[in-house]
Amino acid sequence: MSDAVVLAQRRAxxxxxxxxxxxxxxxxDVQMSLRRRNTLRVGGSADIFCVVKTEEHLLRxxxxxxxxxxxxxxxxxxxNLIIPDEGVEGVVIRLSDDLAQVKFDGEDCGSLTPDxxxxxxxxxxxxxxxxxxxxxxxxxxxxAEFLALVPGTMGAAVAMNAxxxxxxxxxxxxxxKVLTPDGVERWMDVDALAMKYRRCTLPAKxxxxxxxxxxxxxxxxxxxxxxxxxxxxxxxxxxxxxxTFGSVFRNPPGDYAGRLVEAAGMKGARRGGAVISNLHxxxxxxxxxxLADEVLALMAESRRxxxxxxxxxxxxEVKLLGGSISQALDAIESTLKARP
Length: 340
What we know:
single chain; Uridine Diphospho-n-acetylenolpyruvylglucosamine Reductase, domain 2; Uridine Diphospho-n-acetylenolpyruvylglucosamine Reductase, domain 3; Uridine Diphospho-n-acetylenolpyruvylglucosamine Reductase, domain 1; 3 domains
């Protein structure tokens, strides 16, 4: 069967599935371009794109996805990921409204101590990290300031155990609500998630729909100033405001990925419209109409050269929406090895 026939069948199926979804999710469409919905500004379209605003609708959507046997992915602000040029098969969802709220009071959240010094806050998986931190500081609740420096949403922060030199998500997390492909939604304690550096062990194809964080009372003015100063520093040392997804590789133990990539001679390297930043070698920037494949090619070449020179195998920090970043890089690296 030709690729054209396979694509036509995939699109026809997407139309049929979308008719079911659009009955209760009006903010949805087929063949929605994702290029402007990710911070790197690359990639193709989603077969089906939906903005889901309530838990009821999310669960109904989960039932349809399971019934149809099609993949589902969550897209937050589109940072720390690459959208493949061929697009994303199945349903791509954005959590919004009820699924992006910050709750300070409720059945299982609120003050954890008699003096109100520690709090449990429940946050929707679609809540934007910077907005979450702002809401916390308005109530003099601190401890999550590092999240203001991580572009994205709370669900993604848990899924990758996002963090900075100030801390990481696992240090605040009490539990995460996870929706699995069988349509079951349940709370999982942080210990069950086995979180490590930039890793979280979610159930297969599980989606984080809400989180509970432990924060404490503190000096909001001081926290705000520290965030401001750190953002200013990052703007001087990283291509913070350009089209980029953030860090490319995880830092290996005792070293820095950016130092290794630069030492391997890849700083400033270009493939089409994609270039390894001259400001920081662990960042890739889209300087024009870059393709996702060009970004992946830069990553593969960087990893190959670092391994050849230092014997260190760099692990990607960025994800590939709807696919495996490791498999994509392995495929490119196999062609590099085959070259004379």
